[in-house]
Amino acid sequence: MENMNKLILIGCLTLTVACQSATLPVESAPRAVTLTPPAPATATLVGSATPTASPPPLYFTEEFDTPSSFWEFFQTGGMDTPLTSFENGILRIDMPTSDTWILGIHNAHTYSNILITAKSSASPTGSIGLVCRYDGSKGWFEFNIASDGTYSVLIGQWLAPGVAQYKPIDTNPTGQLEAGKLDHEFGFSCQDNNLILYVNGMPLKKLDVERFELTEGNIGIAAASFSETPMKAFFEWIKVEEP
Q1: Cα separation, 86 vs 215, whole angstroms
Q2: Kind of pairing, strands 114-122 and 183-191?
Q3: Each residue of 173-182: pLDDT tens digit?
Q4: Which of 77, 196, 211, 227 is most buried, judging by how many CB atoms fall within 10 Å of its CB?
Q5: What distance in Å separates the CA atoms of residue 15 and residue 2, rounded to the nearest whole number?
Q6: Rounded distance, CA 238 to CA 241, Å?
């Protein structure tokens, strides 16, 4: 499955896959599977934007009209560095090489219960995602939609510089995503012990994540290239609001 390439970009990672249904149940504990990536990867801070005078309010809409120092971008994998830019009201990410992953973290505020919604598009190969409860020392939750019509929900954690562990909480195809197309409005809610996923305004899944004990952190975005490059991702806006 093409979006699994996203999962093996990171050196020494452990994957845990769960059998899931297509409705909105609370999910059971996953089954452990270990995969070894073909080459080690590094986690690199690839920059933050021009400083801004003050942070946005707790709940806000980011329309990328001006650069902001509250965005920090990290790269894992890939031979070349992705380029990020704020242009014409869009956050643009250019990935020149395959098997590249980039994480953008907005570090102005931390949240426990939060809903993140984004309007995004990308090349028809790769994945785009949203992040909640990011804590550099404890981990983060990530919701990705991929160009093959599948979605994945992951918990990530840095184990050491250049080494991260990802545990898939859920990964499945869905009729709410069209294979070969990455042009969606999608949402990700961290609410108490649950994660709730949305695609084009419709609920997709509800997942119980109490066992991971991740309670608060920053919000962010994610994007990844697969085998076909270059890959381009565009975020038109991101809305951060109460769930």
Answers
A1: 31
A2: antiparallel
A3: 988 888 878 8
A4: 77
A5: 15
A6: 10
**Cβ–Cβ under 8 Å, residues 226 and 125:** yes
CB-based contact 157:172 (threshold 8 Å): no
Distance CA 49, CA 162 (A): 23
Q: Which residues of 155-181 are buried (b: 16+ CB within 10 A; e: fewer)?
A: bbbbeeeebbbbbbbbbbeeebbeeee
Domains of the chain: 4-241 (2.60.120.560)
Distance of CA 36 to the CA centre of its chain: 21
**In this structure, what DSSP letter does residue 211 have?**
G
Cβ–Cβ under 8 Å, residues 44 and 26: no
In the chain, the N- to C-terminal Cα span, in Å, equals: 32
